[in-house]
């Protein structure tokens, strides 16, 4: 009991962990006994049942077998032991077991008549079933084989899973005593028929059956999701409680007036998302909404509508974008949309002259400017607003929690709109961004010709550039994207933008005007390169992925991506969104080296331009921990659950969280003390949420 009050039992205090192995445990993040308790196995090897020899090799995986040795063949070849043993199982069926390797110490060990247990990958060949042995055990003459489910832990080279398992097994009763408070209230655990927390720990570390282990594992996933969902729900209810936002009135004819000032009709999805956003802004609870839509879906217009509503109510808006290039573009697109309403906008960037910045700041402070667009330069001390009513954060994942909060802090509970061009499936978005409401633009403006996408090998690059020449001959422009800036970068095999631009200028496309854009240019050089391309003064722009998001040149109809296999699907989709922005037919050519190995995943891009579908596939292939860098560290902070795989558990946890928070908004009831403790310690609850 005294141990429970001091949960920091160190790893070296456990039996079986000495001064030598303690650092190895630490390397895996296992500093304390409790950390070891919470270090769940990722799978189990089932040693329980021997497979009859007649059925060995049917699964293609590891199998167990028990038999009596009838023949032994062994040799040594240059230090390599090759031992092959023929056995007969209880049913009289013959099979063989094979050991190959150095220092396996099996040479000379086996003889006829011996009873053995063997485990390993089994296959069938013309001479019968054969087990490539990874584990074996000698059995006594009358000994009945008994094996169990063996937990397999994520291990390191010097600390194998078996050592971890041994330490866990030896200390399990003591470890279980150190269990953290249960995040799941008793009533919820009972309703979901979960075992007690301690039984759950026993069932995952020392399982009797795979079903028992899985049921126990779900308990941990649910507990983690419950903490995450509760944290989101608390933030949401806190936001709802304060009623301190300025409710903005929506004039009846505003949407009509907005649409009349546009050269085209809004899409249904734009109209719907504008209404969703305006409805939020009409409340005295600050909006916290994510606007997601594929590249080219027309998010800028929707943002402009939000700015307009803020402005007609006498408040200002700020849009923060992750790069100057994107900020410039937003500024350039928003200004003309606001002009018909007599609304002025400002831009604020790090690279601006001091004079321009001072002037812009003055117009913000006086309230003269309805909108400011900028980079994180907006966050500096000197930037103040008269009345900031709306904060828009573009590509929110590129900003930290703190930066987002600092922008909002420039106003008194402003409404917040997050925007992203990386669509993720709706259910996943709702759980990842549990404290946000989500608006999705799921429809592209009409008149877009779908982009034709091809995947080709590098040997066909000359034909690809021949095609680029034709495109330019028709008066259009092209991008060529390379993964590296120059050849001196660590990976010599990667195509480099600098080298490719030189090669195109001097040789391959010598008659064309070739521009170059990459992240090591100064902001001014970047803007110039981009501007020349936008004005049609260069035909081909060779670039790194700095053009990735948002860049918009309608006359560019062709994109060539070199070493396309190096990118995630979602990122390639983003890149591809740079073309197909005008009425002309557009093309995307994904080039991968002849020896690139597996490239099938590129095929999905040749088949669809649906960003949601691609995001889903990307997620399936890569696992949600990465998402092409879109959710940053977020998801990897989950220790037990996987939001994609376990989405049904998340939903259940979310609805439990809603009723818990509804009944006990400050989690002060004793049955919620474990949950409250989990909220304080759970890393996922801190990083996954977008409001802070
Ligand atoms: P996003 O920011 O979502 O990538 P944009 O707002 O930049 O997309 O819009 C992409 C292009 O589509 C722009 O050139 C814009 O003028 C045009 N556009 C937006 N909405 C419509 C619409 N409803 N009808 C026709 N064109 C539209
Ligand atoms: Mg945009």
């Amino acid at each position: 009991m005294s141990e429970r009050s001091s949960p920091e039992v160190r790893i070296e205090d456990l039996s079986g962990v000495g001064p030598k192995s303690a650092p190895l445990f630490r390397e895996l993040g296992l500093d304390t006994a409790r950390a070891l308790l919470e270090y769940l196995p990722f799978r189990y090897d089932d040693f329980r049942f021997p497979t009859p020899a007649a059925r060995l090799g049917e699964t293609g995986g590891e199998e167990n077998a028990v038999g009596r040795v009838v023949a032994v063949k062994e040799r040594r070849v240059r230090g390599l032991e090759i031992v092959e043993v023929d056995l007969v199982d209880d049913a009289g069926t013959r099979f063989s077991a094979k050991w190959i390797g150095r220092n396996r110490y099996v040479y000379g060990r086996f003889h006829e008549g011996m009873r053995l247990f063997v485990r390993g990958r089994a296959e069938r060949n013309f001479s019968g079933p054969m087990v490539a042995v990874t584990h074996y055990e000698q059995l006594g003459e009358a000994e009945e084989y008994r094996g169990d489910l063996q937990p397999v832990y994520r291990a390191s080279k010097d600390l194998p899973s078996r050592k971890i398992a041994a330490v866990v097994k030896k200390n399990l009763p003591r470890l279980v005593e150190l269990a953290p408070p249960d995040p799941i209230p008793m009533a919820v655990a009972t309703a979901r028929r979960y075992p007690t927390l301690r039984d759950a720990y026993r069932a995952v570390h020392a399982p009797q059956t795979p079903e028992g282990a899985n049921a126990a594992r779900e308990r941990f996933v649910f507990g983690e999701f419950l903490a995450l969902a509760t944290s989101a729900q608390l933030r949401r209810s806190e936001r709802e409680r304060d009623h301190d936002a300025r409710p903005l009135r929506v004039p009846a004819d505003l949407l009509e007036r907005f649409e009349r000032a546009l050269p085209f009709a809004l899409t249904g999805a734009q109209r719907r998302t504008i209404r969703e956003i305006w409805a939020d802004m009409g409340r005295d609870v600050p909006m916290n909404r994510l606007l997601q839509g594929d590249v080219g879906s027309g998010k800028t217009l929707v943002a402009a509508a939000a700015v307009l509503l803020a402005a007609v109510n006498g408040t200002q808006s700020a849009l923060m974008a992750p790069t100057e290039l994107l900020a410039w573009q937003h500024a350039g697109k928003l200004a003309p949309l606001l002009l018909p309403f007599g609304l002025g906008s400002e831009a604020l960037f790090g690279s601006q002259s001091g004079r321009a910045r001072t002037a812009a700041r003055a117009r913000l402070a006086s309230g003269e400017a309805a909108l400011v667009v900028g980079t994180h330069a907006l966050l500096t001390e000197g930037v103040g607003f008269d009345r900031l009513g709306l904060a828009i954060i573009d590509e929110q994942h590129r900003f930290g929690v703190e930066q987002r909060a600092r922008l909002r802090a420039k106003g008194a509970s402003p409404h917040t709109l997050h925007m992203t061009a990386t669509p993720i499936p709706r259910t996943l978005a709702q759980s990842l961004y549990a404290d946000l409401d989500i608006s999705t633009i799921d429809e592209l403006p009409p008149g877009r010709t779908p982009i034709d996408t091809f995947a080709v090998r590098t040997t066909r690059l000359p034909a690809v550039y021949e095609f680029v020449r034709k495109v330019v001959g028709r008066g259009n422009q092209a991008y060529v994207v390379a993964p590296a800036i120059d050849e001196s970068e660590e990976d010599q095999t990667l195509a480099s933008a600098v080298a490719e631009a030189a090669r195109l200028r001097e040789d391959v496309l010598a008659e064309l005007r070739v521009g170059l854009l990459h992240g090591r240019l100064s902001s001014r050089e970047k803007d110039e390169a981009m501007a020349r391309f936008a004005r049609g003064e260069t035909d081909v722009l060779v670039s790194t992925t700095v053009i990735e998001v948002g860049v918009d040149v309608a006359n560019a109809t062709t994109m060539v991506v070199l070493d396309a296999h190096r990118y995630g699907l979602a990122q390639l989709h983003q890149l591809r969104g740079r073309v197909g922005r005008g009425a002309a037919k557009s093309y995307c050519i994904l080039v991968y080296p002849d020896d690139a190995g597996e490239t099938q995943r590129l095929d999905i891009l040749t088949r669809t331009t649906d960003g949601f579908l691609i995001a889903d596939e990307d997620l399936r292939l890569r696992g949600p921990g990465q998402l092409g860098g879109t959710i940053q560290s977020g998801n990897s902070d989950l220790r037990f659950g996987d939001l994609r795989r376990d989405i049904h558990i998340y939903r259940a946890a979310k609805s439990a969280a809603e009723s818990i928070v509804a009944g006990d908004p400050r989690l002060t009831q004793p049955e919620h003390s474990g949950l409250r403790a989990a909220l304080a310690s759970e890393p996922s609850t801190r990083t996954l949420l977008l409001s802070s």
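Residues 299-300, 550 surround magnesium ion (ligand 2) (CB under 6 Å). The domain at 451-608 is CATH 3.40.50.300 (Rossmann fold).
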